[in-house]
Amino acid sequence: MPTLGVDLAAADTRTAMATVEWLPGRAVVRDLVLDVSDARIVGAGEHVDKMGLDCPLGWPEPFVALVQAHRASHVTVADGEGAQWRRRLAYRLTDEVVREETEIIPLSVSADRIAHAAFRCARLLAMLAAAGHDVDRGGGGMVVEVYPAAALYRWGLAHRGYKGRGQQVQHADLLTALHDAAPWLDLGAFEGLCRRSHDAFDSVIAALNARAAAIGKAVRPSDEQRPIARVEGWIALPTGPLRDLIDRADG
User: Fold this and answer.
1) Does a structural domain hold residue 152?
2) Averaged over 138-150, what is the pLDDT?
3) Based on the structure, what is the number of domains in the chain?
4) β pairing state of 16-23 and 143-145
5) Which DSSP string corresponds to 56-98?
6) Nearest to 133 by CA among 233, 49, 248, 11
7) 251 lies in a domain?
8) Per-residue pLDDT for 53 more than 70?
9) 190 near 178, Cβ under 8 Å?
10) Whose CB has fewer CB within 10 Å in the chain, the N or C terminal residue?
11) What would the pLDDT profile of 171-207 be if each residue is shown by its tens digit?
């Protein structure tokens, strides 16, 4: 079965979606589109084994508790705990795991602009569940949270500086590096779009990361971590090189 990668923005504009088919010894990008609606994402989910969403799937539990306590005017903080208290509000358990594993600090879903995409993601997850999909924010179902920058780091590729006005690394060059690292990946007619759009490129990386999760080549929450991961979300950080994605033959 194919995997789906979604680089989710706050609105349809700048949202990209890639479908990758896995064949013996190779993978083929079958579809790659920009400006994607929620309905189109839900529809595409009907035809894939795993969907990688590049967006936080939930908020830190202490942050949710803060909002509830603030509503009732019952917020208290012990003396000397201010900095640690704020950190627990800003970062999820999975964010801290990624930081420890890669030294990359994910954007805070409660204190950064990524929250706008997360608002949309919450609705999208509800739509996917209503359509009959197994939505487990810990990654045990059809949907899994991915983080392209961390995946690129794990795969030995440039993971910073290829987005925005101050680009230090052209994502076209990064795509060339991806070709060299994964010659089995066939972009076909979509190579030009990947070179022009870092949103499109990230959606392909999300689909590759979804494959890692689907075949057990990504970090999973431990038994102790799983209850929190199912609420806050869990980033499926790849555990090995890109070649691991095609070690298993598919018919």
Assistant:
1) yes
2) 97
3) 1
4) unpaired
5) --S--HHHHHHHHHHHTT-----TT-HHHHHHHHH--HHHHHH
6) 49
7) no
8) yes
9) no
10) C
11) 778 899 999 999 999 999 999 999 889 999 999 999 9
Distance CA 228, CA 145 (A): 14
Residue, of 222 and 169, whose pLDDT is higher? 222
User: Of the candidates 232, 233, 236, 196, which has an alpha carbon nearest to the alpha carbon of residue 219?
Assistant: 236
Helices (H) and strands (E) in the chain, counts: 10, 6
Residue 219 burial by Cβ neighbours in a 10 Å radius (0-12, 13-18, 19+) = buried
Q: Do 227 and 31 touch, CB atoms closer than 8 A? A: no
Q: Indicate the helix (H) or strand (E) that contains 181.
A: helix 171-181
Residue located via tokens 């910073």: 160
Residue 209 resides in a domain? yes
Rounded Cα distance, 91 and 96, in Å: 7
Q: Which conformational region is residue 159 in: left (phi greater than 0), alpha (psi within -120 to 50 degrees), or beta?
A: alpha
Output Rg (C-alpha) for the chain, integer angstroms.
18
Q: For residue 162, which amino acid is it?
A: Y
**What does the DSSP 8-state code read for residue 45?**
G
The CA-to-CA distance between both ends of the chain, in Å, stands at 9
Please give the Cα distance from 182 to 209 (Å, whole number).
13
CA 6/CA 4 separation, integer angstroms = 7
Record the tokens describing residue 74, joined without a space.
């019952």
Q: Return the sign of the alpha-carbon dihedral for residues 124, 174, 113, 91.
A: positive
What is the domain range of residue 95?
3-246
Find residue 51's DSSP bridge partners. Answer: 4, 143
pLDDT in tens, 11-43: 999 999 999 999 999 999 999 999 999 999 999
Residue 80 structure tokens: 């000397």
| pTM for the predicted model, two decimal places | 0.94
